[in-house]
Amino acid sequence: MKQNALLRITSLLTVLLAMLHITSDIVGGEVMTPGGFLTVTLILVVWLYAALVLSERLSGLIILLLGSLLGLWIPLLHLSGPRGFVGRDYFFIWTCFALGTSTAFSLILSVQGLWGLRKGRIAQ
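^ that's the sequence the OP posted. Answer follows.
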């Protein structure tokens, strides 16, 4: 499969996992204000737009790179908290692992895409 298609698929999977994870946070008792909800929604919309429309451009690859770094931060934030994963349900922990894995892979693909643009070729 071509690298750009892999990046699109992985980014879409990451957005889906982020949405599931945030939903699990809210169901688990985390409080989200309307402003926080709007912020998360805007981040996910920009991430989707970058994955679907801008993935062959420098701006899209940079947005996907930043989104991947943000996605990697989510499981680390939960692990560094006072509870870690203690007392969390199976689905919550699974989404943390899946989100960390998919964002790490997206990060690698984004860096490869940026490297390809730097060399004057785009990896389809």
